[in-house]
Amino acid sequence: SAVTITIPVVVHVLYNTTAQNVTDAQIASQIDVLNEDFQKLNADVTKTPSAFAGSVADVGIAFTLAKRDPNGNATTGITRKQVTQTSWGTDDKMKSSTTGGTNAWNTSQYLNIWVCNLSGGVLGYAQFPGGAAATDGVVILTTGFGRYGSAAAPFNLGRTATHEVGHWLNLRHIWGDASCGNDYVSDTPTQQTSNTGCPTFPKRTCGNTTNGDMFMNYMDYTDDACMYMFSNGQSSRMNALFATGGARESL
Ligand code: ARG
Ligand code: ZN
Ligand code: CA
């Protein structure tokens, strides 16, 4: 694995019940998953069907909990706040102290991850590059965070954050959010719609009569145990953000 960039991460834990106050160990498990998945170090990559094995990418991105806060002081890279809200929507209120949450740390220098109790069965959501600075980052449901502690099956292997950080690095859903839609990546086969659960290979849609859907891609909606790869094209799309003039060059 050749790491080309290391991204400092701050995790903002927002808890109402003490059970939602995820431990440092649960947070560490999530950072481990991100490093494995973005460096093709995940043990389950061996499940990739041989038809897609040549497409699996080492994205070359590492993640580390921040060691300095925005003022230059030593930090664990974790903030914790007990909140009165019992759950949150996808309206970014968790990202501002004026709406009960925690403000982002400088989003040109950190990946901000808010961990909270999202309502409505939402596992997580992300902001694409180029959006408002104050709301840049990803939000992950407490029980879909990490692979330890309160993480609950079938979303207990930390892949929600892998998927959301993929969006944060400009990746679209693999089916292009339309019937046989476009994800702007050429080595991901055109796919009719999202897959859920754990499909059996091959699953052929959109006239793709050979290998079918790349449903084991992190940008599908399959279970955590059934997604284990980014493609080379997705890796190029993500890495382009760090080139001169790219939206995440400052990181
Ligand atoms: N539904 C969420 C989204 O669109 C995340 C899906 C994550 N999937 C998973 N197996 N953890 O962003
Ligand atoms: Zn998504
Ligand atoms: Ca594609």
TrEMBL record:
TM stretches of this protein: none
Superkingdom of the organism of origin: Bacteria
Family: Belongs to the peptidase M43B family.
Name of the protein this chain belongs to: Fibronectin type-III domain-containing protein
The organism of origin for this protein: Hymenobacter saemangeumensis
Interval of the full protein contained in this chain: 40 to 290 of 631
